[in-house]
Amino acid sequence: xxxFENMNTFIRVVESGTISAAADKLGVAKxxxxxxxxxxxxxxxxxLFHRTTRSMNLTDTGRAFYHQSVxxxx
Length: 74
What we know:
Layout (H helix, E strand, L loop, with lengths): L2 H14 L2 H8 L3 H15 L4 E3 L4 E3 L1 H14 L1
Antiparallel strand pairs: 1-2
Helix pairs in contact: 1-2, 1-3, 1-4, 2-3
């Protein structure tokens, strides 16, 4: 697991709004994006998104982690 790659993927998902859009921007498969998010959540021990079959929204922890991630990646 590359933590920076997973963090960058997380940022792209948040900014794109969907896993599919993030996968397109990153040039990888949707399954790779999903796997990276799962690895990141498991590493952190928190849920970053509330997921349903129709939507995906940031948790409060996910929102805070997004802001930290953007600062780190800059």
